[in-house]
Amino acid sequence: MPAPFRTLAEHRCFGGMQRFLEHDAREIGLPMRLSVFLPPQAALAKVPALLYLAGLTCNEETFAVKAGAQRLAAEFGIALIAPDTSPRGAGVAGEADDWDFGVGAGFYLDATQAPWSAHWRMESYLVRELLPLLGECLPIDAQRLGIFGHSMGGHGALTLALRHPGLFRSVSAFAPVCAPTQCPWGRKVFTGYLGADADTEAWQDHDASSLMQRQRAVPYPGGILIDQGLEDKFLAEQLHPHVFEAACSAAGQPLTLRRHIGYDHGYYFVQSFMADHLVHHQRILFQPS
Fold first, then answer.
1. C-alpha–C-alpha distance, residues 63 and 190, integer Å
2. Which of 119, 240, 265, 281 is catalytic?
3. Lowest CB count within 10 Å: 65, 199, 278, 289, which one?
4. Which of 279, 285, 168 is nearest to 227 (CA)?
5. Which of 86, 151, 172, 209 is catalytic?
């Protein structure tokens, strides 16, 4: 594996290679782990890539082990990148006290409040450091990137896609936190990471529904895909897909929001519709620029 990445494990998978890597992250100030699946086509040329952001309590292994995405990604010739969900080992007091804040709960933003601001810089890590680094070190086409995620990671996928126009060509999400300023998870982490004032622009700048409301042009004309299980125990209190749906409608953003009877929040749900998401991204990423 090229420097600066250290290979922790690698496994042949559907003709490609599933790797688990670690590197010293400048933006985080600590080692960070990630998984990378390279399809067999990457041995011959650069391939498009999907950045997957996992949810609360997950890590860099969750997607690779549970989502069942490698078979179709190998067929399509798409690389899969899944970073860890937060810094680890920072030694911040209370960092592991709650399952929905601190370790495993980076929310894919840059904290501005001490003590979290020193290391909880997931947005800058992903956008400024990890993606450019992978483009330099691996056969990944940085002009053909998509982003998707689950739950907290669905929030991250939507917000990063809207906050960094032109970086990603496609976006989708499974059961995303669509309006974090309006739910307990969001209010808790935004207070801790960004400050207590809910009316500040900082909160709105990390709320996908608020960001969509402020769009002056359609950001993703190829459409956004969201899948949501109706037996999801977090749906009513935490996720609010209807708020994002209304924002997309007002902005003219094409959105396919599918509500599935009988499905819950977990990875059996994610597995069930993973192929549809890969097809969604493949359709857009392989279009001519």
1. 25
2. 265
3. 289
4. 279
5. 151
* Phi (first) and psi of residue 71, to 5 degrees: -60, -50
Bond from prior residue into 115 cis (ω within 30 degrees of 0) = yes
At 249-260, the pLDDT tens digits run 999 999 999 999
What's the token pair of residue 90? 């920072």
Main-chain dihedrals φ then ψ at residue 102, nearest 5 degrees: 90, -130
Distance (Å, whole) CA 278 – CA 110 = 28
pLDDT band with cut points at 50, 70 and 90 for residue 1: low
AA letter at 37: F
pLDDT tens for 141-193 read 999 999 999 999 999 999 999 999 999 999 999 999 999 999 999 999 999 99
What is the token pair recorded at 269?
A: 């749900």
Residue identified by tokens 């100030």 is: 29
Q: Is 232 a catalytic residue?
A: yes
DSSP 44-81: TS-EEEEEEE--TT--TTHHHHHS--HHHHHHHT-EEE
**What are residue 10's phi and psi, to 5 degrees?**
-150, 145
3-state secondary structure of 108: coil
**CB 122 within 8 Å of CB 106:** yes
Q: Is 170 among the catalytic positions?
A: no
Question: In the chain, what is the straight-line distance between the N-terminal and C-terminal CA atoms, in Å?
Answer: 30
Per DSSP, the three-state class of 196 is: coil
Q: What type of residue sits at position 222?
A: G
CA trace torsion 225, 230, 236, 239 (10° rounding): -20
| Omega within 30 of 0 (cis) for the link into 184 | no
Query: Which of these is catalytic: 232, 240, 277, 280?
Result: 232
151 is catalytic: yes
pLDDT of 195-218, one tens digit each? 987 667 899 999 999 999 999 999
Tell which residue, 118, 122, 96, has the closest CA to residue 109: 122
